[in-house]
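This section describes the prediction task in plain terms. A model, or a person checking by hand, is given the sequence of a single protein chain and must write out its three-dimensional structure as a string of tokens. No templates, partner chains or ligands are provided. The sample shown here is typical of the held-out split.
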Amino acid sequence: MTICISDSGVGIPQTLRASDEHKAYLRDEDDTRCLEYALGKGISSKKNQNHSGEGLFWTSEFIKANGGEMHVLSGDAMMQVTNEGVLLKTIPKWFGTLIVLKYQIQANASINDLFDSESDGSFDDEIDDLFV
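The expected answer:
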């Protein structure tokens, strides 16, 4: 199954470079390095917002466990994530962000197992609270 998500914003690299929290670190980095940095857990331009910076991290972890692929195009960069690692390439300018997720339907990977491997149990409580 393939899922595509796209927007026409300024893009991940530009958004992170404009963030007070990340601009000093990313100021001189190219767009490929910014995309790779964005995969880190908790990396977000939205400081102090619940679970900000976890979407790309958890999605990439799940895609790797599933044997699928994740492609992110933003700015002058393309990033491919598989269970074999991360491939970064410079591309012609992409305005906005495009994320393509290729998920292996027949694979036996559980997002709950991923969360449980890193969680102290509080994450499950927070998710449950969303539906009360």
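For orientation: Residues 2-130 form one domain.
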